[in-house]
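User: Here's a chain of 272 residues. Predict its fold as tokens.
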Amino acid sequence: MLSRLVYRIPKVIRTKLQRPYSLYVKLKDIDKDMEVKTDYATFYINPMTYIGCSIFNRGVYEPNTSRIIDKFIEPGMIAIDVGASNGVHTLRMAKRVGSTGEVYAFEPSEMRFKYLEHNIKLNPYKNIKPEMKGVSNKHQYTQFEDLGWVRMDNKNIVTKGPAVEVVTLNDYVKKNMIQKVDFIKIDTDGWEYHIIDGMRDILKRDKPIIIMEMRETFHEEKTGEELVLLLSKLGYRFFSDNTLREYINEEEVIDALKGKVINVLCLNESTD
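Assistant: Prediction complete.
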């Protein structure tokens, strides 16, 4: 009961309660990796991590994103998960697209990718292609900071992972002869602008549904305003991930990003 209450309160307040929560977890002897079954997949997680805590206590992570996946993905679709982490959304996508669809999951963190592969093997879905690659707007090889898992007790270990290939989705889709991309989820802690910039051809051709993390500023001095205007020029409209209410205009979205990190649903005018 305590763990459920801790996770439901605002993050600012919840941070102050991280130590009591960590003590609670240790008393319950669950600060360790374990298998947890949900209504759509089995996961290998540690409840002391934010993702693991949510899966352990609620059976879901980022419920708004999960609802959007359930609402918009249909059998036979091609979905892409950029920033797949341990597969928490990848496996939900796999269930939704079914045996006639496919999911491509990108995760550059060596540690998280191991969990992604393990969680895929724990489940019956045969329609997932995991890729230990980064995604951006140019091809290169890069060494990322491996943030590992964000823990409730802040005992996080940051390491340098191995150099991994970074691809553009334009090139990847063409190379793998993917006929149409229907749905994309992007959560990469500040590289979202570059990923969108590197998939302009896909956005023009396929007009996929996008659920993505947005913020006021991105890496390399790119801004949320630039991203919003880029997508708007490509025919996209913006919706709250919580209520699905459409933002009135670009200015309202840009204003919502000030000092915040939010998830936004992007639908192309010709497909919504």
